[in-house]
Specification:
heterodimer, A: 124 residues, mainly alpha, elongated, B: 530 residues, Monovalent cation/H+ antiporter subunit D (chain B)
């Protein structure tokens, strides 16, 4: 089971990192989702892997699984779910306003398109 | 247990909710309540500073649960100082947002502002590592909204980058916390510190991994090279007042580094050495790249952003030493650089509002050239760290604190050479924008093809509808200029009262480098808890 879980985490992370490095926002959104899945599983594993044991105290049970990672994962799921929604909305907004869904900044972010001096005007 | 400790978190949360639920339709009410809320927060912060000045570490146990199990908030000198700095900055910048009319160019500016305050103050006060993650998320979510406030294609695109980068950072944060939890079995920072201290050296491989992962997360927030790539485009495209508020966001990362690596992984452990070896070169590169960026950029907004990167570099040089003297210098420079970066962003925004764009090129003389150029001049001097302002004192303190280290030649030469580069960059920008403008004859054709306003200028108002009260041009340029003046006055005060501030910073540094006070306050002395 350890092998299964760790290889699943590894593959999800690899896929997530690859997708995050793409230039289109759709791939980046998918990538962050994959990464957050990988991290959620990883957080589960930090409480040690056990099968068939309750996280909450019950009568007649002597061994338990660690309840804290489950609470952490719940928080992390809520946050990453909300963040994915925000990213999708922002990417959609950028796509609709900017005309394409590329993630990188265009050249006009760093340089003026046509300088008035270069255009041969002004300068007394 | 003093309930005022949680006020910096509760107050903005309640205020933000009130604004969004009751005052959605009334911008005037929003402004009054939001600014009053921030002023109240400043009052609370001053009281907290008075409380913390006794040297005691105050602990607030949420739900009165005992320490490693429940979440704690803690207040020491550093967190009280950071809350006060945040509130001061937020108040001045909020007055600017009001005066410049930025807050009516989109929805929910004031509500998001309050939530941002909540996240930042919470991150400064929390004593629980996972809670720190939650407050980071709160401040990030609010900042996503603020960063894209006002819209526009370029700003939205920069916003997508900012979100993607920070989401990756958040997942990394969770991974780091997971590793640390797996090794230590706790998330309470004091408890973690106690367990790390007794851990045998040969078992620390995973712990070191966790510590370095955590370092990467905080380095992203603090925009240390090579994790700084999100900053220039984000800050240059964010609305002016928002970028000014973000000056404190990089400091959240720096604060977290100071907190974690003095408390949980203190000096002379294996981890500390790993981190120190990584941190100093990163800080030097950050400083160099920031200041070279100041010189190399062709846009005033990016100039301010690169100046912010550079200031983080200087700050991190001091932090990376982890000695009381260097931490003293770091705290002094932290206050200075927050105020100075914020003032620079605001001045740049004033330029943008008057010129229509921020490109460093000749243009006709803008209205109010005198006052704006005077403010730019003062701010630029403060940012690059020339006398007479506090940047100079801060840099001197940093240089003095690193005098006897092995890396001193590297540190000194980098700081001094990059200061020269920054002075040149600022002088070039200032003379192009403010001085040579007089040489430029306005041509009629220039007015015919206005550049689409992506940053800064006061664009057309939102479509007036029944949800937003259409204030008749309430933007008051005088108030905007006055709020920049307020920040500069803060820098002047920091210069004049450098003695008392340094002594305060010294006390703070001593408290930080003696984590047993903190451990005692959180873990022992728990009578009356559930």
């Amino acid at each position: 089971m350890e092998l299964l879980l760790s290889s699943a985490i590894g593959m999800l992370t690899a896929a997530g990192v690859y997708l995050i490095l793409r230039r289109r926002s759709f791939a980046v959104v998918l990538g962050t989702t994959m990464l957050s899945y990988a991290i959620n599983m990883f957080l589960f594993a930090t409480g040690r892997l056990v099968v068939d044991q309750p996280p909450i105290i019950q009568k007649g049970v002597t061994s338990y699984t660690d309840p804290l990672p489950q609470a952490l994962v719940l928080t992390a799921i809520v946050i990453s779910f909300g963040m994915t929604a925000v990213t999708v909305m922002m990417a959609l907004g950028a796509f609709l306003e900017g005309g394409d869904d590329r993630v990188d900044m265009p050249r006009s972010d760093r340089e003026p398109e046509v300088s008035r001096i270069d255009a041969g005007e002004g300068r007394a | 247990m003093n309930h005022i400790l949680i006020a910096p978190v509760i107050l903005p949360a309640v205020m933000g909710a009130l604004i969004i639920l009751w005052m959605r339709a009334d911008l005037l009410l929003q402004r009054v309540f939001s600014i009053a809320g921030t002023a109240l927060l400043l009052g609370v912060a001053i009281y907290l500073n008075w409380l913390a000045s006794s040297g005691e570490v105050l602990v607030y146990r949420l739900g009165n649960w005992a320490a490693p199990f429940g979440i704690v908030l803690m207040l020491d000198r550093l967190s009280a100082l950071m809350v006060a700095l945040t509130a001061t900055l937020a108040l001045a910048v909020q007055l600017y947002a009001f005066g410049s009319g930025w807050d009516r160019k989109g929805w929910h500016f004031h509500a998001l502002w309050q939530f941002q305050m909540m996240g930042v103050c919470g991150a400064f006060l929390t004593g629980d590592a996972f809670n720190l993650f939650v407050f980071f998320e709160v401040l990030l979510i609010a900042s996503y909204g603020l960063m894209t406030h006002g819209g526009g294609p370029m700003r939205l695109r920069a916003g997508v980058q900012y979100i993607a980068y920070n989401l990756a950072g958040s997942t990394l944060f969770l991974a780091a916390l997971g590793v640390l939890y797996a090794v230590t079995g706790t998330l309470n920072m004091a408890d973690m510190a106690a367990r790390v201290a007794v851990m045998p050296a040969e078992d620390t491989a995973l712990l070191r991994t966790g510590a370095v992962l955590l370092m990467l997360v905080f380095a992203i927030k603090a925009s240390l090279v090579p994790l700084h790539f999100w900053l220039p485009s984000t800050y240059a495209n964010a609305p002016g007042p928002v970028a000014a508020l973000f000056a404190v966001m990089t400091k959240v990362g720096v604060y977290a580094i100071i907190r974690f690596y003095t408390l949980v992984f203190p000096q002379d452990t294996v981890i500390e050495r790993v981190v120190m070896d990584l941190l100093l070169p990163a800080a030097l590169f950050t400083l160099a790249i920031g200041q070279i960026g100041v010189l190399g950029t062709r846009n005033l907004g990016r100039l301010a952003a690169f100046a912010a990167v550079g200031s983080v570099g200087t700050l991190m040089i001091a932090v990376s030493q982890f000695t009381p003297q260097a931490t003293t210098a770091a705290i002094y420079y932290l206050i200075h650089s927050t105020l100075a970066s914020a003032a620079l962003f605001l001045v740049v925004d004033m330029v943008g509002a008057r010129r229509g764009d921020l490109w460093l090129r000749l243009d006709s003389v803008m209205p109010g050239n005198g006052i704006v150029s005077a403010l730019f001049f003062g701010t630029a001097i403060a940012v690059v760290g020339m006398p007479p302002f506090s940047g100079f004192i801060g840099k001197l303190l940093v240089l003095d604190a690193t005098r006897e280290t092995v890396a001193a030649p590297w540190i000194w030469s980098t700081v001094i050479v990059t200061s020269l580069i920054a002075i040149y960059g600022m002088a070039r920008a200032g003379s192009l924008v403010f001085w040579k403008a007089y040489e430029f004859q306005d041509v009629p054709m220039a007015a015919a093809a206005p550049v689409p306003p992506s940053v800064g200028p006061i664009p057309a108002k939102l479509e007036p509808d029944e949800h937003i009260q259409d204030l008749e041009d309430a933007a008051s340029p005088a108030l905007a200029a006055a709020s920049v003046g307020l920040l500069l006055a803060g820098i002047v005060a920091l210069t004049i009262f450098a003695g008392p501030v340094t002594r305060f910073a010294q006390d703070t540094a001593e408290q930080l480098h003696n984590p047993s006070i903190y451990l005692g306050a959180v873990l022992e002395d728990q009578e009356g808890t559930k």
